[in-house]
Amino acid sequence: MPEGDTVWNTARVLQRALAGARITGSDFRVPQLATTDLTDWTVRESASRGKHLLLRLGAPTGEHWTLHSHLRMDGAWRAYAPGERWSGRPAHLIRVVLRSPGAVAVGYHLHDLTLVPTADEGHLVGHLGPDLLGADWDPAEAVRRLADHPEQTIGEALLDQRNLAGVGNLYKCEVLFLRGVSPWTPVEKVPDLPGLVALSQRLLAANRGRWTQSSTGSLHRGQTSYVYGRRAQPCRRCGTAIRKEELGERVTYWCPVCQPELPRPSSSG
Known about the structure:
Layout: H1 4-18, E1 25-28, E2 42-49, E3 52-58, E4 64-70, E5 76-80, E6 94-99, E7 104-108, E8 111-117, H2 122-125, H3 139-147, H4 154-159, H5 169-179, H6 193-207, E9 243-247, E10 250-254
Antiparallel strand pairs: 1-6, 2-3, 3-4, 4-8, 5-7, 6-7, 9-10
Helix pairs in contact: 3-6, 5-6
């Protein structure tokens, strides 16, 4: 699941493969960048901001540019040695290829692929809340932003990247289970909002640097989550069947016993 930790890991992969390298060839397979040629540009840095990936480049003329991409649910970057077979995804999903003397970076099914002056990065990511894995992580600001929407459900508020950047559906479900909070609880009714924010950051940080995301501490298949992806399976705490339901535009998983629900607002007039 491409959440904040996955994007952070991806940025590190590209950093190791390309940072400091001169691009010897590029191939963009999206209409808006189809004629762009990055040959002789230099890769300055690969960084992440929430779920956004920022590949910062230096043009031969001295200007600084950023290749921005978003993985969403199905995007990925892979780095290969020159001459190595590209095995990450089907070829028709390739959106960009960047070649250097030591590595080839291939972007599959990337979304929002844009090239902008680095000085204009704020237009793409400036709206985001504090980055859970960023050097400037500010838990108090994340709590403040969440609290600014008191009537919104906590399940939806955690997914709003304007509040805090990096939490996706998997971590939303797991954090709320671990805190014993129903996804439908209004933000103003969450008993310990700072504690919930702190746990969100700890979970993402714990999974930073590895590709298997676990909230349980186990890396074994089928044992990595408490509720996410476990509809109708017994709760690991109380044995009650885990439920799955839509919340906003996403599905959510929860235990109806361990996460007691407040009465939901009536949908009738």
